[in-house]
Amino acid sequence: MAIRMPRIIRKSSTAGDVPKGYFAVYVGEKQKKRFVIPISFLSQPTFQDLLSQAEEEFGFDHPMGGVTIPCSEDIFIGITSQFRI
């Protein structure tokens, strides 16, 4: 069985390169990695849970220019790989 990866665009450059229909999130425990992901992820209940955790931990202050998700990169990829786009 093949593992299906969602359309996540991983970039390390600035906020000006986010295409229409996507948004930036920062994921990781110590070193944050930037992911540009489809806005369709916002409708996923599991992703909404991640956003609630981000709100609890960081509030609405995200100085890096994107939402900071408080989980490891492996967990984030595991969760988002299950989403149907």
TrEMBL record:
GO biological process, one term: response to auxin
InterPro entries found in the cross-reference section: SAUR_fam
Pfam families for this protein: Auxin_inducible
Family: Belongs to the ARG7 family.
PANTHER family: SAUR-LIKE AUXIN-RESPONSIVE PROTEIN FAMILY-RELATED
Protein name per the record: Auxin-induced protein 15a
Lineage of the organism: Eukaryota, Viridiplantae, Streptophyta, Embryophyta, Tracheophyta
